[in-house]
Amino acid sequence: MQPAEIVRGFRIFREALDRAAQRALVADLREVAAAAPMFSPMTPYGRPMRVRMTSAGRYGWYSDRSGYRYERHHPDGHPWPEIPRSVLGIWRRFASAGRDPDCCLVNYYGEGARMGLHQDRDEADFSWPVVSLSLGDEALFRMGGATRGGKTASVWLRSGDVVVMGGAARLAYHGVDRIRFGSSTLLNGGGRINLTLRVVD
Ligand code: SIN
Ligand code: FE2
User: Fold this and answer.
1) Which fold is adopted by the domain 5-198?
2) Does the pTM of the predicted model rise above 0.90?
3) How confident is the model at residue 4 (pLDDT cuts 50, 70, 90)?
């Protein structure tokens, strides 16, 4: 494994997963999406997000007109499926063997999808990092500091890259400006999947 590239406190591990591991993960995520179908949550501002998402674990991330939060159930009323073992392995390798995450948020970026700069701050304890894995098309990932409007830096994330947002970067702003649709052959039909693993409570 390549050593971490550290950009503004974000630790980036290039090709942390090889192609076979990426393919196995995609198969596991298809099962997650079969049990908990992807949806486009409404932002508090009243526009649907361009990213489609679902979750696995005790909690799923959710948003509607009343705000961002974690929910115990998918909008269809079922509990979220369990986090696949393959995904827990990534967490144990990059975050902690002492405690597993409560939520694996699965984001799918189709052509033209992006994600505005935001902080991940709906969790109870910021001493746990957020671990992110990219699969499929390349994405231009932007990283800032703990306040909105400061200087930012950007890197292209490729399939198999892991980003650990911990320490000073735990509450740093971040987002995805764009993806290069069709730049990877991992996902049939193109697009990008990003997983983020979180300890919620
Ligand atoms: C996120 O911040 O939830 C997603 C980041 C990414 O897609 O790389
Ligand atoms: Fe985030």
Assistant:
1) Jelly Rolls (2.60.120)
2) yes
3) confident
CB neighbours of residue 148 within 10 Å:
10
Q: CA Rg, the chain, in Å?
A: 15
Query: Are 84 and 181 in contact, with CB atoms under 8 Å apart?
Result: no
Query: Of the residues 11, 68, 123, 132, which should be mutated to test ligand 1's pocket, given the most ligand atoms within 8 Å of the CB?
Result: 132
Q: Point out which residues pair with 197 in neighbouring strands.
A: 104, 131
Q: Whose CA is nearest to atom 2 of ligand 1?
A: 175
pLDDT band at 96 (very low <50, low <70, confident <90, very high): confident
Beta bridge partners of 104: 56, 197
For the chain, what are the domain ranges? 5-198
> What would the DSSP string read from start to end of 25-85?
HHHHHHHHHHHS--B-PBPTTS-B-SSEEEEEES-EEEEETTEEEEESB-TTSSBPPPPPH
